[in-house]
Amino acid sequence: MTASLAIFDLDNTLLTGDSDVLWCEFLVANGLLPSDRLALNARMDADYRSGTVSPLDFSQFYVGTLGGRTPAFWAPWRLRFLQQVVLPRIPAASRALVARHREAGHTLVLSTATNRVITELTAAALDIPHLIATEAALADGPAGHEGTYTGRTTGMLNMREGKVQRLHDWLAAQGLAAAARAQALDSAHFYSDSANDLPLLRAVGHPTVVDPDDRLLAEAQARRWPVLRLDRST
């Protein structure tokens, strides 16, 4: 890999809103989750923003919405979620930001704490070829039958310090040795809105904060990181 990396957080960065929160609301609206999950959803979102929830508790809460059902069951719901909820919340400014890095020849990576089941179609819609996401565990089905999601995560969570390790692991899978991975990070761009992403922002050579939360804005000002405000009116 010789091209510079352009890494993008998804929720409240390229997307106006949070995929996990929106997914939970979508499932309740369509009768796939009980309405009492809305209060828990709001509390989880608040705890994420304040940085008080653990990566495991956060990830398990949302991966748990998939439990007991197969990928085939979720396939049409994922598509409806993308079309009805996600695509209208991707502003033209986000697409233009991604396009600038694509035109510069950079390797595009979407790195999100949200699980792959929810975000895989979003990455494709943004024409971002590489996705690093939290993974949902899939149980083996009977012979000749599809397995079901267990409602649990698997592997390292792609959140906070986990985003740095998962990126290192991804670079190693591309065939880069340790020295080359360090060089890739030195030349990498990363865009995020959240203080939860400070570990990866600090690890790359070109961090940019996007419509940042208050904790991240304070850090960005102290470190003189660029602050990008996207036009979210379109």
UniProtKB/TrEMBL annotation:
<dbReference type="Pfam" id="PF12710">
    <property type="entry name" value="HAD"/>
</dbReference>
<dbReference type="InterPro" id="IPR023214">
    <property type="entry name" value="HAD_sf"/>
</dbReference>
<dbReference type="GO" id="GO:0016787">
    <property type="term" value="F:hydrolase activity"/>
</dbReference>
<dbReference type="InterPro" id="IPR006385">
    <property type="entry name" value="HAD_hydro_SerB1"/>
</dbReference>
<dbReference type="GO" id="GO:0046872">
    <property type="term" value="F:metal ion binding"/>
</dbReference>
<dbReference type="InterPro" id="IPR050582">
    <property type="entry name" value="HAD-like_SerB"/>
</dbReference>
<keyword id="KW-0378">Hydrolase</keyword>
<keyword id="KW-0460">Magnesium</keyword>
<dbReference type="InterPro" id="IPR036412">
    <property type="entry name" value="HAD-like_sf"/>
</dbReference>
<protein>
    <submittedName>
        <fullName>Haloacid dehalogenase</fullName>
    </submittedName>
</protein>
<keyword id="KW-0479">Metal-binding</keyword>
